[in-house]
Write a structure and sequence with these properties.
The structure is a single chain. The chain contains 12 helices and 10 strands. With 318 residues, the protein is α+β, with helices and mostly antiparallel strands. The protein has a domain of 133 residues: Alpha-Beta Complex (Aspartate Aminotransferase, domain 1). The strands form 3 sheets. Strands 1-2-5-6 form a 4-stranded mixed beta sheet. Strands 4-3-8 form a 3-stranded antiparallel beta sheet, with no helix packed on it. Strand 3 and strand 4 form a beta hairpin. The chain is globular. The relative contact order is 0.11. The structure holds pyridoxal-5'-phosphate. The site of pyridoxal-5'-phosphate has 7 residues, from loops.
């Protein structure tokens, strides 16, 4: 919206909260410039299918470039919202390597954090030079300057230039230092513990058919266990809200991922209507995200499980 684009929302899959490839296909018009799939909860989207769609001959023919860069690409760009999915795998490859551009979030609630921040992974096809695009983005993030402070300390390198009225949104070295430590312990420590927690929930909750459990592994995909989006079968939004209240009454904090955009004031005012996305509404109305973070002990997990059972019993039997 900041660049004058109009986001077109499409519905999701019932099984994993991710964008429906068929819904994407139906929404493509000559005005479509980019597809932005979200790897919800850390589960990668159907990237082969999405990459295939934008490369289909009839869809390439439909594409109308609006500027020189779009002309060079010659097709719809895939810009993956990989905010949740660092470390997740799709057909043996990590997210960030699966499409044109992927963006990770290192916000405080994410699996790998730098307190605030993120990373952009570039895999643009020829004729794009990803190194050059990276340098261009660095200029944008540092006041439009072509050199950072460290580069200027080198002998004979003090001169710099300002190339455009850029922004100030570079990652600080202190944040990067936190990120490097987090990265070091990510695969062998953080991810391992997150998986253990998710498996403990699954083992305990799978005995009760009222619980629809998230899937973390399929033949093609391995999640990075970012969220535990539990759904309650046969409950409506009001009952879900009451279950959340009952869980909070047991001194446990839970959350909902996410409130669909058409239910939020701004998007409502832009004309988006919830009934156009029935699967998203159904998933949302029955969803409760259980706590899932590295420092959660097995005893904590068991307390959450007991609270969930008791709260569901209290509300759905009432
Ligand atoms: C799916 C998704 N996309 C994007 C973002 C934005 O990330 P950031 O806050 O790092 O810009 C978030 C973070 O909350 C997210 O959950």
């Amino acid at each position: 919206m900041h660049v004058g684009a109009r986001p077109v929302l499409v519905d999701i899959n019932p099984h994993d909260f991710n964008i429906s490839v068929e819904a994407v296909r139906k929404a493509i018009t000559p005005r479509t410039k980019v597809i932005m799939p979200v790897d919800f909860a850390g589960m990668p989207c159907d990237m082969d299918e999405l990459n295939a769609i934008v490369n289909e001959e009839n869809i390439r023919k439909l594409f109308k470039p609006g500027n020189e860069i779009q002309q060079q690409l010659g097709r719809i760009l895939i810009l993956s919202d990989a905010a949740h999915s660092i470390g997740a795998q799709y057909k043996g490859k990590r997210t960030g390597s699966l499409c044109d551009v992927a963006v990770f979030s290192f916000h405080a609630v994410k699996n790998l954090t730098t307190a605030e921040g993120g990373a952009v992974a570039l895999n643009l096809p020829a004729p794009f030079d990803n190194e050059a695009v990276y340098k261009y983005l660095c200029i944008k993030t540092l006041h439009g300057q072509n050199k950072d402070a460290l580069a200027k300390t080198q002998r004979g390198a003090w001169r710099y230039d300002i190339l455009e009225p850029g922004y100030k949104c570079n990652m600080m070295d202190i944040q990067a230092a936190i990120g490097l430590v987090e990265l070091e312990r990510y695969d062998e420590d953080n991810l391992v513990r997150r998986k253990q927690i998710a498996e403990r929930y699954i083992k305990a909750l799978s005995v009760d058919p009222r619980f629809e459990l998230p899937v973390f592994e399929t033949a093609d995909k391995i999640s990075c266990y970012h969220l535990f989006p539990l759904r309650i079968r046969g409950c409506n939004e009001e009952q879900r809200d009451a279950i959340i209240d009952a869980i909070f009454a047991r001194d446990i904090s839970v959350n909902v991922h996410f409130i669909p955009l058409p239910l939020l004031s701004f998007y409502k005012s832009e004309g988006y209507v919830m009934s156009d996305y029935p699967v998203a509404y159904d998933n949302y109305s029955r969803e409760i995200s259980l706590p899932l973070y590295y420092n959660l002990s097995d005893e904590d997990v068991d307390r959450v499980i007991a609270a969930v059972f008791a709260s569901v019993e209290e509300v759905l039997k009432a």
